[in-house]
Amino acid sequence: MAYDVWGVRGLYTSLGSGWTYLNAHDTPQIPEKVASAVARSFRSAASVPPPEPALGSHSKHSAGQPEGAGYPAAARRAIADLAGVAPDQVVLGPSVPALYAALVAAMKPMLRRSSAIVLNPLDRPELTAQLRRADAKAAWAQADLATGDLPAWQYADIADGSTRLVSVPAAHAELGNVVGVADIAEAVRERSRAWVLVDATAYAPYRPLDLDAWGADVAAVDMAQLGGPEIAALIFRDAAMFKRLDTEALELEVSPGLAGGVPAVVDHYASLVAGPAGRASRRNRLKHSMGETTAYLNGLRDDLHTFLGTLPAVHIVGVSGEAAADARVERIPRLAFGVTGVPSQTVLQRLTANGIVATRTRDCQLLEDMGVADMGGAVTIAMSPFNTQNDIEQLVRTVASLA
């Protein structure tokens, strides 16, 4: 079935306000199905269901328990379908930084002062800050400053027998470049038995997660970045990994009311495109739906790069310029751009005046090294499943009025 973007737009009541939302990286719009599920979960979380009239082999063993007691388990099942794993491989938490801090604490039996972890400049700074709390020396991978890519070959030189953890993002949240996680994991395995930790938050709204394809050991995802509640998860490659951890450190409290909205997020992405007839699993429906969604959004991404790239005063970070011209970097539908001679705040104001919601690209060392500060800052654009060709044309016309 062809991708019905107008049908998808009908799933988001917030789109009726008249704004063109191109800020999925910062504040994703919440589908009505998810908002209703969270409201329903908060109403029912503290209530106790009525007792069953008779006991039997199929009766509930949670009689007398609040309904919300089962919501975290339902959230784990939904995230397991998102990643293609079993629910017992999923750990919930209030945020990805909180889960990274918990993972560092849980890995204490594996870490010694002679151990090492490998960090990188593409990870979100708040995640790197949590990993640096580990009682281990930190080694750093370096990014390609022309494209923002994270070359895999360097990991064969950085990782060694003392390395216990290697952190990488699946994609950069603002530049949009997809990291070659599988190649990095392969390079790490040549020299080390370290765990590969992947922040999949920016990647997850566009493609199904697959730890096996990545060769990753642990992945993290923030459900709020998919338009869901403030719930995050760590997904482990194998439940046997918990035997090496202090699992008490991973026992984080989450709100049952928020957890109750997580299944609706996964169901939403699994139903953006109708699947084949029959009783397909949620995982298979999700893969089919997101496959069609990815193809549609990749078309918008290509048009956005093409049309913005034709404006001579526009510089797309990691894409424009001779050094990046011949690079073959896979990208999700996100980018950061600047206009020569025009401060990013002025660009943002012009976009807002024309009904477009975007954000100023955050300051960080990587983007500073890539020259973003020198050109007066940049503006980040990130697309959602409901964006249309009209949105791209409106953006390009507005930027052209400045360029």
TrEMBL record:
<dbReference type="InterPro" id="IPR000192">
    <property type="entry name" value="Aminotrans_V_dom"/>
</dbReference>
<feature type="region of interest" description="Disordered">
    <location>
        <begin position="46"/>
        <end position="70"/>
    </location>
</feature>
<dbReference type="InterPro" id="IPR015421">
    <property type="entry name" value="PyrdxlP-dep_Trfase_major"/>
</dbReference>
<protein>
    <submittedName>
        <fullName>Aminotransferase class-V</fullName>
    </submittedName>
</protein>
<dbReference type="InterPro" id="IPR015422">
    <property type="entry name" value="PyrdxlP-dep_Trfase_small"/>
</dbReference>
<feature type="domain" description="Aminotransferase class V">
    <location>
        <begin position="111"/>
        <end position="239"/>
    </location>
</feature>
<keyword id="KW-0808">Transferase</keyword>
<dbReference type="InterPro" id="IPR015424">
    <property type="entry name" value="PyrdxlP-dep_Trfase"/>
</dbReference>
<keyword id="KW-0032">Aminotransferase</keyword>
<dbReference type="Pfam" id="PF00266">
    <property type="entry name" value="Aminotran_5"/>
</dbReference>
<dbReference type="GO" id="GO:0008483">
    <property type="term" value="F:transaminase activity"/>
</dbReference>
